[in-house]
Each structure stands twice: as structure tokens, then as C-alpha cells.
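hey so u asked for the seq, here:
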Amino acid sequence: MTRAIVIRTAGTNCDEELIRAFDLAGAAADPVHLERVIADPGVLESADLIGFPGGFSYGDDIASGRVFAAKVRASLYPALRGAVDRGACIIGVCNGFQVLVQAGLLPGPDAGEAWPETPAEPVVTLTENESARFIDRWIGVEVDEASPCVWTRGLGGSGDGMVLPIAHAEGRFVAPNGLAVQLASTGRVALRYRENVNGSEGAIAGICDTSGRVFGLMPHPERYLSWDRHPISTRLESEAITGVTPGLRMFQNAVEAVSGVASA
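ran it, C-alpha cells below
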């Protein structure tokens, strides 16, 4: 059976939701404490899917996700690079997205280039919202159908159902010297806000690596696993709430992707 590992640590508070998302998508998901993974990075070798949950890891001391990311850079980068090379899928949600960019796992190497032996220096960041306020709301998002992102595959036409909840104070995506345009031109901008509530460059809400398997986003798909979570669920037309939610579909997409690798 497809196996997922959710790496949690002090201050993460969305790990249970992430575990439930993987479980509902058809994977067997287990929470594993960061310190246990650091002590034995080999535990990641059996993982088809790896999740970095949201929350406030280590109280967001210094900056959001900074301590978590420093530990990942120092001890887990080789194991995570190996997981990507063998076709595993990795997701970082909110605080987890902040970890992935600071740990050198996003936006990843350019197409055709190998992952570096040591973590790349961060080239993008997620910083204080333009309003300097914590934002907690549902918001419309748009999927770039040309992106290779396996998590968002097929979600470009989700219409009114393509909304996701956000809850962050440091979610503004910043990239220097036109890098955001380059990321978009190479398909690495997988998700954008319809309303740019936090001032992100290019309204970017989520990016992936060139393989489409490593995905980070500020919105929380794991909080949208059933239609009754939609903010206007009672007013949705019946035909709009058939099948699975966009949030759950993301996790099903990843399970299908790694199952394909396993059977190849």
C-alpha cells in the first residue's frame, strides 16, 4: 500500500488534518517526529509521500519555519533529495511551504539539472503579509494547467469550488530579479490567488519543482476534504458538489502519481 509520512515537530498543529487527507486519498499515513527522522533518516526510504504540515513550528522563533528548515537542511536534505530522485512526492503546506523554500527544496533545480549534493541557498521567501496582519479566510485560487505539478493536475476547471482556506501572517511570496517570471515560464508556478490578499509577487500561492512532485503552497487543501467545509456549501448547486473536493483531489493525484511509479 502507498505509504505517507507526515513530519511533525513542536508547534505544528495541522499534522492530523494532513494525515487524514492522505488516508482519505488511499495512502497509509503515519506521523513521525522530526527528531526521530533526524536520528534515522532511513525511515524516509519507505515513504512514497512526505508531508510537511502547517502550524507554528518552534513558535516561529526567528522567522516562520526557520528552525524547522535549519534542522532539515542540516540533517535530512540527502534523504529528501533521494526521495525525490526515486519519484516520491513531497508537499509543504503553509508553515511547511516556508520550510521547503528555506531548506533548499523549492523551487528546485532547473529542468535537466540534477539536485545539488548540498542544499541550495534559498532564492525565494515567504515573508510578512503586505497588510502586516494575520489573514484567516477562504479565497479563490487558480491552477496553471500548463504546470507539471502532479498535485494540482486536472483542477484547472473546478469553477466556484476552487477555493481554499488560508491562515497566515507571513505568506507573501517574494522572488528577486524577475525570478517569479522565470518560475512561471518553466511551469513552476502551480497556483495563484484570484484576489492577491497578501501582496505576493504575481499573486503566487504555490510553486513546484520542475518534476511537479515537490509542491509548496500557503492555502490549506487538507482543510477542504468534504463539501460541507465550503464556506457557502448550502448555496452551491447540486451539480457543483458531486465527486471529491479540490482539496482531496490534490492528495488523490499524488497517490495516483506514486502508484504509477511503483507499478512502472
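The helical segments are 15-25, 34-39, 66-75, 77-85, 95-102, 179-185, 246-263. The chain has a mean pLDDT of 93.
lmk if thats what u needed
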